[in-house]
Write a structure and sequence with these properties.
Shape: globular
Oligomer: single chain
Largest sheet: none
Order of helices and strands: HHHHHHHHHHHHHH
């Protein structure tokens, strides 16, 4: 008896072609701004790329000269260091707070658990502009204006980080905690020795997303920081790209933007597999 072979799925089916077109359009929208930054950056200043459009950069020396000028700016270097410290401090604090809360929400029952979780998640629907004044008043009362803790601590309460970690920790079998408690492990030991090691992918995902959010955050540093030596990268780049700035030509402005985009791009490329895996598995239960 002959077994009928199933014909392979055609890659050019109408449905797949539609998805490929949508993916290509989305990729074009995402990549085109960075392409234009690089194209204009590595072009002569006298060459108006929007008038005499060219597909490829035409002057490597011009771009390197603009990048060198930005790297000689001490404020740009200090902004980079402040942004790294700001992002790392906020991400570590967020992970500590969110992981503890997620441990309780996902693996234990207590009165008001569901309403409290919904209230925490509902904060994601509130724009930052609504909470920025109350947060600033709290920072003033604590004396944290123009300090690193005033910059980073308010961002440690992350509903998105709580959601990612909670969804992943719900997949941890409760039998592991029960066995650990029988062996004498207390509540904190179960969190530290069992829940955290099993949630490393989601922890890495939430931490990187928090760091990237801090790196690109502009509104909060504009409010809470006025000292030049504490201004983060996002603040410094706006000085280069300001519409009222006549100190820097377009190539230098784009060089600052290009250099500011390199660290988050490297971070995402290096940890891309963990980020995608963490986001994908955070939605699985059981």
């Amino acid at each position: 008896m002959k077994v009928k072979k199933l014909s392979p799925r055609k890659w050019y089916s109408p449905e797949r072609l539609l998805f490929l077109l949508i993916a290509a359009a989305w990729a074009f929208v995402a990549v085109f701004p960075m392409y234009m930054v690089i194209n204009i950056l590595f072009s002569p200043r006298s060459d108006a790329v929007f008038v005499n459009f060219h597909w490829l950069p035409t002057s490597l020396t011009e771009g390197l000269s603009s990048i060198q000028r930005v790297l000689k700016d001490s404020q740009f270097i200090s902004g980079t260091l402040v942004s790294v410290a700001y992002g790392v401090f906020q991400a570590l604090g967020m992970l500590l707070i969110a992981s503890m809360a997620a441990f309780e929400f996902s693996l234990f029952e207590f009165p008001g658990k569901r309403p409290l979780f919904l209230i925490a998640l509902s904060s994601m629907m509130i724009p930052q502009a609504v909470t920025i004044i109350p947060a600033f008043r709290v920072v003033i009362s604590l004396g944290w204006v123009n300090t690193l803790q005033g910059l980073a601590v308010p961002g440690m309460a992350s509903a998105s980080g709580l959601f990612i970690l909670t969804q992943f920790m719900e997949t941890i079998p409760k039998e592991l905690l029960h066995s650990a408690s029988i062996d004498g492990a207390n509540h904190f030991t179960q969190y530290w020795r069992i829940a955290l090691p099993l949630s490393k992918n989601s922890i890495l995902t939430a931490g990187i997303l928090c760091f990237l959010g801090a790196w690109g955050n502009l509104m909060w540093p504009l409010v809470v920081i006025s000292l030049p030596n504490l201004q983060p990268m996002s603040y410094v780049v706006t000085k280069y790209a300001s519409a009222f700035s006549t100190l820097y030509p377009l190539n230098v402005q784009l060089a600052a933007m290009f250099l500011a985009s390199i660290p988050p791009l490297i971070l995402f490329v290096v940890f891309q597999r963990f980020i995608i895996n963490g986001i994908a598995t955070s939605g699985l239960k059981g």
